[in-house]
Structures are given as structure tokens and as C-alpha cells.
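Predicting holo structure, zinc ion bound.
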Amino acid sequence: MAEPMAVIATVSNAVALVKKAKAVADSMTNVELKMTIAELMGELATVKMQVAELQEENSQLRKRQELQHKLVYKYSKYFLPDPPEGLHVGPYCARCWDFDKKLISLIDYSSKDYLTPNFGCRVCGSTYDPEVLE
Ligand SMILES: [Zn+2]
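Done. C-alpha cells:
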């Protein structure tokens, strides 16, 4: 599989070659050739944009996969014992991760009302009972 940066470099080279061909065509009088080259430049610009989008999507999928390996399921919640930069240890909502692959921090309600479960998810509304210490 081609690396995304290599694909972008290839497309950039193709754009440079088309610009060179356009310069040659501009010095001639063949209108059809000029129009075809202009169309080709537009298509290449679209391909370049699509590659950038795929690169971003691929990056997101890799991050998600990396998170999946780091997440630890405990007390019906997820935790990140070794959180990547920008994230915390947790707990995170198990339902949101399992169904939507969204990492949602749980809100700790334990200090407000001891009759309700300790944690709640503000996105899906799931509640989690107090942690049972082993
Ligand atoms: Zn949730």
C-alpha cells in the first residue's frame, strides 16, 4: 500500500507536469488541447483533495485503533492507564465506545447524591454503579 505522503507527492508531480504541458500548449493555437489540459488540471486538483481527505480519515482510524488497544475495561467502564496526550485516565462510557467508537468522559455524581449511580454519560444517558473494589 502506498504511503499517503508518497501519493500526494506523485499527484503534485503530475500537477507540475500538466502545468508544463499547459505552458507548451499555450504557445500553440490548439484550443482543444488547451481545454483538455485545463480539465486535467481540475481533475488532478480534485484527486489531490480526495487524497488529503483519505489521509485524514486514515489518521483518525489509526488513532481509534491505537486507543482500542490501550483501553482497559474495568467496573463496566473503560480506562486509559497510559493516556495519550490530550486524554485522561478515565473512566469513559462503555456504551458510547462499544456502539459509536466515541470516547466520552463519564461525569462523577458521587459527591452530589449517594443514592444515584456514581457515574453518568452526558451523551447516551448511561449510568454506572459505584466501583466495586476487588
Ligand atoms: Zn455514553
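The CA atoms of residues 25 and 98 lie 56 Å apart.
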